[in-house]
Amino acid sequence: MQVAEFRYRFLLQPAAKAGSIPSTDEQQAAVLVPVIDYGDKLHILFTQRALHLRHHPGQISFPGGRIELNELSADAALREANEEIGLLPTEVELLGRLPMQATSTGFTIQPWVGLLKPQRSWKLQADEVAGIFEVPLTHFLAQENRHQFSLPLRGKLQHLHAMPYQDKFIWGATAAILHRLCLQLAADRS
């Protein structure tokens, strides 16, 4: 899928047209789903969280974090991406947001989808990010690469998403956000 088709499919969706919402709850977070435009192909950028972090150590995620009080969720996603990987907000074309994603740890995540050109380098914040990597969007669009499973977690049965790629295991809220993006991109528009 090239960027023109991606933009067309994404922008037609009602969820992408909704405005940014200010935070009133400290359990709200925002993430940026960075879609890198290589001209003839699109990649999704991921971070791997540092192992010493209290929440989700070592897990694969999108750049993001807690929304500050009265901060707009889009601003929080861009701020966190800048802090974590050195991505300047001016380098991102925000297309819109996906539906909110609840986590088993009590957070509500607002995912923002943004297009960007390939960057010359990344400036990782070592306190939060152990590394970054990219995956071709086409990998996730293929249904056979998207899985669901159930697991007892925190006293109840949780239905989780997983999307393995090479030696990486993308799961939980990150995989659920990706799954929603894929459904949105694949929806019949006739």
From TrEMBL:
<keyword id="KW-0479">Metal-binding</keyword>
<feature type="domain" description="Nudix hydrolase">
    <location>
        <begin position="26"/>
        <end position="157"/>
    </location>
</feature>
<protein>
    <submittedName>
        <fullName>CoA pyrophosphatase</fullName>
    </submittedName>
</protein>
<dbReference type="Pfam" id="PF00293">
    <property type="entry name" value="NUDIX"/>
</dbReference>
<keyword id="KW-0464">Manganese</keyword>
<dbReference type="InterPro" id="IPR000086">
    <property type="entry name" value="NUDIX_hydrolase_dom"/>
</dbReference>
<dbReference type="InterPro" id="IPR045121">
    <property type="entry name" value="CoAse"/>
</dbReference>
<dbReference type="InterPro" id="IPR015797">
    <property type="entry name" value="NUDIX_hydrolase-like_dom_sf"/>
</dbReference>
<keyword id="KW-0460">Magnesium</keyword>
<dbReference type="InterPro" id="IPR020084">
    <property type="entry name" value="NUDIX_hydrolase_CS"/>
</dbReference>
<comment type="similarity">
    <text>Belongs to the Nudix hydrolase family. PCD1 subfamily.</text>
</comment>
<dbReference type="InterPro" id="IPR000059">
    <property type="entry name" value="NUDIX_hydrolase_NudL_CS"/>
</dbReference>
<keyword id="KW-0378">Hydrolase</keyword>
